[in-house]
Design brief:
By secondary structure, the chain is an alpha/beta fold. The protein has helices at residues 2-7, 26-34, 113-116, 128-134, 149-158, 174-181, 194-197, 212-224, 226-243, 246-264; strands at 14-17, 36-37, 43-44, 51-54, 60-61, 63-66, 74-76, 80-81, 87-91, 97-98, 100-104, 111-112, 119-122, 141-145, 161-164, 186-189, 204-207.
């Protein structure tokens, strides 16, 4: 069932949701997706002793993992394009894991990040048209425009990660909270509220604001460390339940009111003589 797959975050893509504008760091994110990676995602073998074998050729490269003795069972990872003509598939791991890297014979290049993990972009804004034109040929990037809220939540639940690349100081952005509600970790710039909202290594990862190289590195770390990222999914949902549910927010608000009332004490100024009661807005 597709909905079950999405609920586990198995859609296999990264997601951006927000305004397409300069301060949101969208260009930084797209530059990160242009970066070359020499390490496509690992696929776990069917069993210890499984062998890696090529499933495709020409300008594409992929692996399948199959039991040596039984054959039929195999798991394929998404094919990735070669970095350049003349590239070749090479094994990066063995034993019970199976993977390929695509590299030029002479230079050892790599593949664009978009060939490793696609990026879905939801939203519109003043830079949308310009960025669509500028990055029109960027592999793995899909522009979805504005989506209904229920569709956004569905995309969040299916995303491997939410990317939050803002280059300005955010107050309390809702998008990461919505991602936590879906159990989706957040890769966010280490800036403003995001430094405290996203706990690095527990509910997501931080990268240096404005640094596309660092963002690409953090995304690849998330792709390669599947078990750690699964733990972060659980932690992200736990973070939402602990801090951001309507019930929890109501309780916290009541605590603030109670402390404020308790600390205020009785006023020594008669109500009738207070400036506001007399229609005065400025008292010198």
């Amino acid at each position: 069932d597709d909905d079950d797959v999405l609920a586990r975050g198995d859609g296999g893509y990264a997601l951006y949701v927000g305004r397409i504008s300069a301060e949101k760091g969208v260009r930084v994110m797209l530059e990160a997706w242009k970066r070359m990676s020499s390490h496509p995602p690992f696929g776990k073998g069917a069993a210890p002793g499984g062998e890696c074998r090529s499933l495709d050729s020409a300008d594409r490269c992929a692996t399948g993992c199959a039991r040596d003795d039984e054959g039929g069972f195999e798991m394929q990872v998404p094919p990735v394009r070669l970095a350049a003509p003349g590239g070749k598939c090479r094994s990066l791991d063995s034993a019970d894991r199976c993977a390929t890297g695509c590299a030029r014979d002479d230079e050892g290049g790599g593949v664009p990040l978009g060939a490793v993990i696609p990026l879905k972009v939801v939203g519109e804004g003043p830079l949308a048209e310009e960025l669509r034109r500028e990055y029109a040929g960027l592999e793995g990037v899909e522009w979805l425009g504005v989506k209904p809220l229920d569709e956004v939540y569905r995309l969040m639940a299916g995303a491997r990660m939410l990317v939050f690349p803002s280059v300005w100081y955010e107050g309390l952005p809702l998008t990461p909270i919505e991602a936590f509600a879906a159990g989706t970790p957040v890769v966010a710039s280490r800036l403003g509220a995001m430094k405290s909202m996203v706990e690095h290594g527990r509910t997501g990862l931080h990268f240096e604001a404005g640094d596309a190289e660092d963002l690409a590195a953090k995304v690849m770390w998330a792709v390669r460390h599947r078990e750690a990222w699964s733990e972060m999914r659980r932690a992200a949902r736990a973070e939402y339940e602990a801090k951001y549910t309507p019930e929890r927010n109501y309780a916290m608000l009541m605590e603030i009111y109670e402390r404020a009332i308790g600390n205020a004490g009785p006023s020594t100024t008669p109500i009738a003589t207070r400036p506001a009661a007399l229609g005065m807005t400025d008292v010198s």
